[in-house]
Write a structure and sequence with these properties.
Length: 101
């Protein structure tokens, strides 16, 4: 096919993507490692810090991290899931721009 670009079958991350992923992993894992962070008030402070960080890093996709405030949702890795969605939205957007260029 004319003008078709084959994408590689592996993932290549930029430094920013890896840094954002590391921050999200740190935020999610810290709740599992430090049991005190699962307490209602103390844990909510960490959740709010994480939500603000996600909004700063991922813009509108960071709104997904608001699920961290849902009672009982602390067992899910919400920040990592937010990073995954942001990553795939970003890659899809780049792929669309490349095909239309």
């Amino acid at each position: 096919m004319k003008g078709s670009i084959l994408s590689p079958r592996y993932f290549v991350f930029t430094e920013d993507e890896l840094l954002f992923l590391a921050i999200c992993i740190l935020l999610d894992v810290s709740e599992y490692v430090v049991v005190v962070l699962l307490a209602p008030i103390v844990g909510d402070v960490l959740d709010i810090v994480g939500i603000i960080a996600c909004l700063a890093m991922f813009r509108w996709v960071g709104l997904l991290s608001l699920f961290e405030l849902v009672p009982g949702a602390d067992i899910l890795p919400i920040f990592i899931i937010t990073w995954l969605i942001w990553y795939f939205v970003k890659k899809r957007r780049k792929r669309i721009v490349r095909t239309h260029a």
